[in-house]
Amino acid sequence: MLELKNVQTSYGNIQALQDVNLTIHAGEIVTLIGANGAGKSTTLMTISGIVPCRRGKILLKGQEIQALSPDKIVALGVCQVPEGRHIFADLTVRENLDLGAFLRTDKAGIKQDLEYVYSLFPILAERRHQSGGTLSGGQQQMLAMSRALMARPQLLLLDEPSMGLAPLVIKQIFEIIKAINKEHNTTIFLVEQNAHQALHIADRGYVIENGRIILADSADKLLNNPDVQKAYLGI
Amino acid sequence: MITVKEVKRSLLVSLWFVFLTFPLMVIKVNPYERTVSWRWSNMVYVAIGTFVISLLAKAWFVRKERRMARQQDSCHARIPIIQRILQRPGYRYPLAAFLLGAVLAFPHLFSTYQANIMTTALMYIVLGLGLNIVVGVAGLLDLGYVAFYAVGAYSYALLNLHFGLGFWTVLPVGGLLAALFGVLLGFPVLRLRGDYLAIVTLGFGEIIRLILENWNAFSKGPSGISNIPRPGFFGLEMSLDQAMIYMYYLMIGLLLVTIFVVNRLQDSRLGRAWLALREDEIACQAMGIDKTRTKLIAFSLGAFWAGLIGVIFAAKTTFVNPASFTFMESAIILSIVVLGGMGSIVGVILGALILVLLPEYLRALSEYRMLAFGAILVAMMIFKPEGLIANVRRIYCYQGRKSNTALKNDE
Q1: If we measure between CA atoms, which residue out of B203, B187, B225 comes closest to residue B327?
Q2: Mean of pLDDT values over A208-217
Q3: Measuring CA to CA, which residue among B174, B182, B173 is closest to residue B131?
Q4: Residues A124, A118: Cα–Cα separation, whole Å
Q5: Strand pairing partners for A216?
Q6: Does an H or E element contain A209, and which?
Q7: Do residues A105 and A201 share a domain?
Q8: Are A162 and A230 in the same domain?
Q9: Closest Cα of chain B to A227: distance in Å?
Q10: pLDDT tens-digit profile of B238-260?
């Protein structure tokens, strides 16, 4: 589905990604874990085209997308939930969701997806006329995810969905991520600080450190890897 | 009610004002006779005046707070009354018909002078609505808006001077030229936000004005271009009075078109994209909104209206020179948008009427008129910082356990 080949990204003179190689197959949940500043978010931003890729190739179903603008990449079915949620605070929940479907024109499909999203997160249905900024952190995260789902993506990029949330809410969110993956066969690329949770729902995982992928393995093996346990799982 | 603490505070306020205004209000130096007179009575007036005003303002804020608390219960009260009226179809159409009638009858009821002032006000309404697209809806602070206005005005003046083109031919051309300049300005500022954007647009406005002022061979410099023909009406000969009234109706027509277009735009996909862009650029990109295109369209559409009004301005005054396109104009148009309420069409109309008509009718106060004008603006920003008629988009009310019944104006 998605393949990153020797991707390099830099902010000015600071090189954030060095030769990142990644492969995500269709229907998988793949997670990328790493410490602060390791390059997790940059990897996502590079895939979605918000941060330009300096060198290397990003292939989406065999098509090179590294030179495309963000809106073209979204049109190809890659949708990102940015870190820190970035919902439209002054717009209502409903308008936020409508904006998620910005590129779509099939009204019936949009309506159907709206119902689906409301069924995933009933609280959003209840608050659809409320402005996004008045939601709690957990609800905002749900809204951000729902908004991305409204684009009906084939590949969903999630950037730290657990950030700043209570453990119970995190559990709920992760269950829904799994459900989305199963029910819609949406491929999910999950960037997480919370390595334990992420590896539990993921099929495979990558570990990034200082802009380099240092480990790539199945999620189970990573969970049992002593180095990973020491560095990221706190065991 | 008013407590001792508040009285004390007001006393301090009045003391501070006495101190501040002391050199200005009390000391009077006469350099010819070399005398200094002390006008102690003024000091007393200032003290009493500020004390009373401070107390009143305090009382007003207390009332406002209480009103806000009441509104927790009834959410209808939070929508400005005008918007509430407009939402009721039963009031909406009669009101619109009445307004239209009043507006159409205006030049026949009052003098041509009044109609002329009103035409100017109408022009500023359209300018305000145009800038509202850029500033109010898309959230791009543009301080050089007057540049597009100048482009429109000069395109009519120059095209008429060199090629003898008429008003109706140049009207769309002027608008399109201004839109083109909007795109030209848009490209370099795409990556800028907030203060930086404001500075660059400000510079752009000044550049256009300075070019017009200094490029004599092109624009005839500061002396400007005169004898620009008024708009024609199927070749009909018109007296000055008739031409003025014709101009007035023309502006009414353009205003209606503008309101219609802007209203439709705000509810369109593009309008949503602008709102989203104003809120959060990263999220916008993640949603697949083409940032570049959306911004450029905002700039060029805003500029288009300014260009149209520029052409009309040139035709109305029959004379253009760079002095009409100073930064002050941009500031006034921006004040119209901010004063009226960002993003609100009714607000912009009201703001323009106040900002253009007030200085005219305050002429009775002669030299104090700008002072009064400034005081009104300051008072506005203190008591209603969201603008005269804030653009209340959706209202959410919490009604006990059944918690999602909002005012349904989006479904």
Answers
A1: B203
A2: 90
A3: B182
A4: 6
A5: A206
A6: strand A204-209
A7: no
A8: yes
A9: 34
A10: 788 888 888 899 999 999 999 99
End-to-end CA distance of chain B: 44
Does A229 lie in the same domain as A186? yes
Q: How many Å apart are CA A121 and CA A161, to the nearest integer?
A: 15
What pLDDT, on the 0 to 100 scale, is given for residue B7? 86
What does the domain layout of chain B look like in residue ranges?
A: 4-70, 111-383
Q: Which residues contact B27 (CB under 8 A, 6 or more apart)?
A: B36, B37, B38, B39
* pLDDT confidence bin for B407, thresholds 50/70/90: very low
- Give the domain range for residue A28: 1-77+154-235
Residues A145 and A159 in one domain: no
Per-residue pLDDT of B350-365, as tens digits, reads: 889 988 888 888 777 7
Domain termination residue (choose one: A125, A152, A179): A152
Same domain, A210 and A140: no
Indicate the residue type of B43.
M
pLDDT category of residue B392 using cuts at 50, 70 and 90: low
A147: nearest CA in chain B? B287
Q: Count Cα neighbours of A53 within 13 Å in the Cβ-side half-sphere.
A: 26
Residue with tokens 């990102």: A80
Residues A142 and A159 in one domain: no
The reply to whether residue A70 touches residue B285, judged by beta carbons under 8 angstroms, is yes
Closest residue in A to B407 (Cα) is: A129
Q: Do B285 and A103 touch (CB under 8 A)?
A: no
pLDDT at B155 over 60: yes
Q: How far apart are CA B106 and CA B100, in angstroms?
A: 10
Q: Dihedral of CA B20/B23/B25/B26: which sign?
A: positive
Neighbouring C-beta atoms of residue B100, cutoff 10 Å: 12
Q: How far apart are CA A51 and CA A141, in angstroms?
A: 22
Give the pLDDT of residue B406: 42
State the pLDDT at residue B175.
95
CB proximity under 8 Å: B 42-61 to A: none
What angle is formed at CA B43 by the lines to CA B8 and CA B50, rounded to 5 degrees? 40
Nearest residue in A to B391, CA atom: A90
* DSSP 8-state class, residue B398: -
pTM: 0.80
Best mutation target among B287, B297, B386 (most A Cβ atoms within 10 Å) is: B287
Which of A102, A121, A152 marks a domain boundary? A152
Q: Are residues A69 and A167 in the same domain?
A: yes
A95 touches chain B (CB under 8 A): yes
- Is residue A14 located within the same domain as residue A60? yes
Contact: A86, B286; criterion CB under 8 Å: yes
Instruction: Please say whether the beta carbons of A17 and A185 come within 8 A.
Output: no
State the Cα–Cα distance between residues B389 and B340, nearest whole angstrom. 6
Domain count, chain A: 2
User: Which CATH number does the domain housing residue A161 bear?
Assistant: 3.40.50.300
Q: What is the signed CA dihedral for B227, B229, B235, B241, rounded to 10 degrees?
A: -90
- Name chain A contacts of B282, Cβ cutoff 8 Å: 50, 82, 86
pLDDT for res B194: 79
Comparing A184 with B237, which gets the higher pLDDT?
A: A184
Cα–Cα separations (whole angstroms), residue B164 to B20, B158, B176, B188, B216? 59, 9, 19, 34, 20
